[in-house]
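ok trying this again, last paste got cut off
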Amino acid sequence: MKAKRSSPSRKADEFPKSIREGSAEVKIYLTPVTVGGKDYAQFTVSYYLGGKRIRQRFSDLSKAETEAQAAVVKLSNADHEALKLSPSDRAAYVQCLDLLRPWGMPLSVAVTDYVAALAKLPPGASLVEAVADYAKRHPANAPKRTVTEAVTELIEDRRAAGCSEVHLRDMQTRLGRFSRAFQVQLSTVSASLVRDYLRALTTPEGKPAKNRTKRNVLRLISALFHFSRKRGFISRELADEIAEIDAPKSEHTEIGIFSPADIRALLSTAAPELVAPMAIGAFAGLRTAEIARLDWSEIKLAERVVIVGAAKSKTASRRVVPITDNLAAWLAPYARQSGSVNPCTSDALLSNRFSRVADRLGMVWVENGLRHSFVSYRLAVTHDPARVANEAGHSPSMLHKNYKALVTEAEGKDWFAIMPSGEAADVLPMPLASEAA
C-alpha cells in the first residue's frame, strides 16, 4: 500500500523547525509541491556537514523529524570531538566562529572555500593579494560599460573631436566586430582574450586575416581601452596589459602594379562612367575610397589640381594632387561643375566594377593597384620621394620601402604619356560649362 502523503494544511508559520543538540542545529523547512494540479506537503531537512549543505526531502513530517534528530546527534558528536582540542586550538576555533558570524557562514564552508581558492593560485601567492588585485581591476564604484557601450562612446568622442568620416567608419567596422564578439562588461576582457581574438581573426570571406589587418585592429582595440581607462571604466592595469600586447610582425608583400599596356586596355574597355574614376586612380594616385567620395567641384581642371579634403582622405589630412597632362585629357570630356565622380553608391561597388573590367580582359585586378602604379611611375619620373609622398598622402620612408626601383624612368614616362585614342586625344583642358558662360 502506498504511503499516504501528509496534508499541506499545516501552518507555514510553524516552520522552519529547529532541532538542537548542544551547539549543533538542523532545520526542517516546509517545501510544498504541486502534482497534477493538487498541492502536497513536503518537508526538507537541511544542515551543513563537512563544509557541504545537506538537503533531504520527506513527504511525512515524522520521518523528517526522525532524520533531523539523527543528523543533529551526529553533528553534536563532531562538536564533542572539537572539545578535545587544546586550549589554544579551542580559542582559535571560537575566534574563527566570531569572525564568520557577521557573514552567516559555517567555519567548515569558509575553510573549504579558502583551500579551493589557494589551489587555483600560483605558488607563493596569497589569497589576500589575489583579492586586492581583483578589487583594483574591478573597483566597486567604477562606472560599468559593456564593450558595445564603450565603443559607441569612443566613436562619438572622436566624431566630436573632428575625426574624418573615413576614420570613423573604419573604427565602426573593426571595433563593431570586436564588440559583437565580446558582448560582456569591458572590464572582464583580458589581454589573453584579445590575443586569442586576433589569432582567430578572419576576412569577410573566411580566410585568415593578414598581420597588417591584425595590427590595425589591435591599434584600435588599444585606443578603446586607453579611452576607457581615462573615463574610469577600467583600471590602469588592464589598459596597460592591452597596450603591451605584441603586435603581429609586419609581412613584406610585393606591391602589385599595372603596366602601361594594362592601363591602356582597362581605360579603353571601361564603360564611359568609369573612365574618369579609373584615370584619377591611375594618374593622380587617389585611393579607391577617396575617389568614391570625390566631387567634381574638387577637380580643378583650370588650376590643374585635385583637392582631397581632410574628411575624404584616409589620413584625415588635406592634400593637393597635380593633374598631369594625360589625366587632364582623360577628364576633359566628362568634367562637370559638381556632383559625385563615383557612379556607384560605395567604394566597394566601384572597386567591384573596376574588377569586372579586368575580368573581361582576362587580367587579375589588384586592389588599389591604380594608386600603387601611380606612385611607382611617378617616383621613377620625378626621383623625388618627398614630393611623391606629399602627392600620394604617404610617408617618404614608406615610399622608399615599398616603391623604390619597381619600374624604370622610361616606363614612367610611358605611363604618363598615355592619352585617349581618337578625337579625345586632342582634347585640351577646357573651362567647365558654367565657367565658359
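PB: full thing came through this time. The mean pLDDT is 83.
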